[in-house]
TrEMBL record:
One of its GO terms (biological process) is DNA recombination. This is Site-specific integrase. It comes from the Bacteria. GO terms for molecular function: DNA binding. It comes from Bradyrhizobium sp. LLZ17. The keyword DNA-binding does not apply. Keywords: DNA integration, DNA recombination. Belongs to the 'phage' integrase family. The keyword Hydrolase does not apply.
Amino acid sequence: MLTDAEIAKFWSAASAERAEFGALVKLLLLTGCRLNEVAGMTSGELSDDRMTWSIPGARTKNGRPHLVPLAPLAQQILGNVRETDTAAGQSYIFSTTDGISHVSGWSKIKARMDDRMKIPHWRLHDLRRTAATGMAEIGIAPHIVEAALNHISGAKAGVAGVYNRAQYSAEKKAALARWAQHVSGVIDGGVANVVPLGNRRR
């Protein structure tokens, strides 16, 4: 996972990319979603006010639909990406082909970011780990972190998952907003503006 100092370097490197690329990787960190899920985001998956993102089960690793509440920072980032209007409501958000196909070429993007970040041995999937661990460190309960990441284990695994059908919608929204606030504090001033619960420090 990335430390707070590395998150700041990551954000700076992402900001140096063209909007379609930079916004995409920033949302990996803010939402904890997988690369293919964010890259394949379409305009039809976003609510009209762009406050929520509905990922159909066909596009998630576990086959379960995932509703992602978008924190204000995530909404702001999406607002900076040029909108396209191909295939009425189904154009890709992150595209260099006017919405026809989503961006790709991750090895080249990663190589450019590596040159700026100077952080060895990290992967784009580490952003999901960073979001999960970061939320836990600022006091988000494990089962809410799992719900926010659409991850089936722990409270939702096996028999427990059969009986626990709670979606934790309000808790997910609060958790992702709190995590975005933490990230915002890190990138704005180098010090998070969310006080972690407990004694764990990074």
